[in-house]
Structure formats: structure tokens, C-alpha cells
Design brief:
By secondary structure, the protein is an alpha/beta fold. 33% of the residues lie in helices and 16% in strands.
């Protein structure tokens, strides 16, 4: 099966049947089905254009993916995500207002566990204990380090999970702090993982949601850093549009640019530390 993607990312497969953009001059045989993968809603227009483009040469062309509210089925390694990525569950037990994982995929569903070192589940820790343990058993059998890019739910994180992280070769464990109240959960994770380097503890931080100001967002980012995590800011897209209208988008983009690059936010916190007693916002990296 031919797979087509609107743009190349770090997750795009690179095998002979994976293509980015329009059909190339030299193409696979024309009796093959074509699947166009659309992850983000803002790529829908381009994917529909690609469907017309590929339909000039192939009769069976379909567009689908998360942007089309595809609930997702059994995960096939290397099909729509590069090799080494594994998704062991779909859905989520939460209905966060800024996230559509539950809306698209429904309640948590455990899938057959396929080998891979980059775990991309929406909420792995919402799965059964036995499933989580089997995932870590799989990771122990891999030669590469494990990366939990899909995120580990700080609210569900327990001492058992901390011990599981210590039982594998860990590359990065990602958490999230998407609203002020989440800091208390991250504080507990920090205590349970005190011996794991901040370089390996990353944290997604949603900013600009629900009327949050730039100052409030920056305070939360500093607090995450102070807890021993490397924060990575993600600007809420709808807020981004509002800011453009109000002329404040540049300010939001600047804070995002600082807080998604370790070299910049570490330097920023270092300079801040020279001026004031950091207290809650003290640097630990």
C-alpha cells in the first residue's frame, strides 16, 4: 500500500512506499491502493488536493487519519509512523477541554503490544497494570533507549511506575502540566523520580488556553523547570488566532520559542538567577 503525507516530519516513514506531497515521476505500479494520512485539521485542504493529484494515476485513493476523527485500529509498526514507534493503546479516560483524544478515539482501548522504543500512547498509565507491565517487559528486550513521547499521566503516576522507569534504559519520560492545578501532580512525580536526570524528564506545557496571560504562562513554565523537568511550551492554536487579532501574537511566539529550546530557557533561567533569589523558580538543570 502506498502511503502519502502532506509534509515530512520526524515521524514520517521513509520506506519505498511512503511519499511526501505529489506523485513523483517514477511511481509504484498503478494497481496499488493509496492512503493519504492527515494528522492535523489545518492540513485537510492540502490532503484533499493531494487526493486529486494522486487520483490522476491511481483509482483507489483515500484520505483519513486523526484530522478526520479516525478512531484508530490495531497499530501496524512502520505504516503511518516511522519504525521504532509503537502505540499500545487508543483513547483516554479523561476529557480535557483542550484535547480531542477522547472524542476521537473514545475510552481507553488496549492493543496488542508491538515492538518499538518510542511509546506514543495517549495515556499509557490509564491502561491496566498488566498491560503497562507488558509494555515495560517489551522495552527491556530492546537494545535502544525508551522514549515515552506520548506522555505519562502525572496524576496517575505511582511509585510502581517510578520503579518501572528505573528498570529500563530510559531516553526520555514526558509528562504534562497543561493548567496551574497540574503542578501539584508534577511535584509528586518529581519526588518519586528525584534520581532521574532533568535531561530525561521532559514536560509538555500548554500555554495561552482559557484566557491565560503571558505572565501566568511564564510563571508556570519556570515552576516546571524548578521542579527538575525540561519544559516544552505548546501554544494553544485557537489562542494563537486571537492573539494575531489583538496584536499580541509576537509576544506569545517569543515565550514559546524560549521555552521549547533547552539552550534558550536554561540561559534565560541562568540570567534570572543572577538577578534574584530564584526560590520557587530556582534552576536545577
Amino acid at each position: 500500500m502506498i502511503r502519502v503525507f502532506p509534509k515530512k516530519t520526524t515521524w514520517t516513514p521513509n520506506d519505498a512506499l511512503a511519499f511526501v506531497g505529489d506523485p513523483p515521476l517514477f511511481r509504484p505500479k498503478e494497481d496499488m491502493p493509496v492512503k493519504i494520512s492527515c494528522v492535523f485539521t489545518w492540513d485537510i485542504e492540502e490532503c484533499e488536493r493531494l487526493k486529486r493529484s494522486w487520483s490522476r494515476f491511481y483509482s483507489d485513493v483515500e484520505v483519513g487519519g486523526p484530522a478526520y476523527d479516525d478512531p484508530g485500529g490495531e497499530f501496524v509498526p512502520g505504516m503511518f509512523l516511522k519504525k521504532d514507534v509503537s502505540i499500545t493503546s487508543r483513547g483516554c479516560t479523561k476529557e480535557c477541554p483542550w484535547c480531542i483524544a477522547h472524542k476521537r478515539e473514545g475510552w481507553i482501548r488496549e492493543l496488542p503490544i508491538r515492538s518499538g522504543v518510542i511509546i506514543q500512547d495517549n495515556n499509557l498509565l490509564a491502561c491496566s497494570t498488566s498491560h503497562v507491565e507488558r509494555v515495560f517487559d517489551m522495552l527491556r528486550g530492546q537494545k535502544k533507549r525508551a522514549y515515552f513521547n506520548g506522555g505519562l499521566d502525572a496524576e496517575l503516576f505511582t511509585p510502581v511506575h517510578a520503579d518501572l522507569l528505573r528498570s529500563i534504559s530510559l531516553g526520555e519520560a514526558w509528562f504534562a502540566c497543561d493548567y496551574p492545578g497540574a503542578l501539584k501532580h508534577l511535584q509528586r512525580v518529581a519526588e518519586l523520580t528525584f534520581d532521574i536526570s532533568p535531561r530525561k524528564k521532559r514536560c509538555y506545557v500548554l500555554i495561552g488556553f482559557n484566557g491565560e496571560t503571558v505572565i501566568q504562562a511564564e510563571q508556570r513554565l519556570k515552576a516546571v523547570y524548578d521542579l527538575g523537568f525540561w519544559p516544552f511550551a505548546s501554544l494553544y492554536r485557537s489562542q494563537n488566532v486571537l492573539d494575531r487579532v489583538e496584536g499580541r501574537q509576537k509576544e506569545w511566539q517569543e515565550i514559546q520559542n524560549i521555552w521549547c529550546r533547552p539552550s534558550r530557557f536554561k540561559g534565560f533561567m541562568s540570567e534570572l538567577g543572577k538577578e534574584v533569589d530564584l526560590g520557587l523558580f530556582g534552576a536545577r538543570c
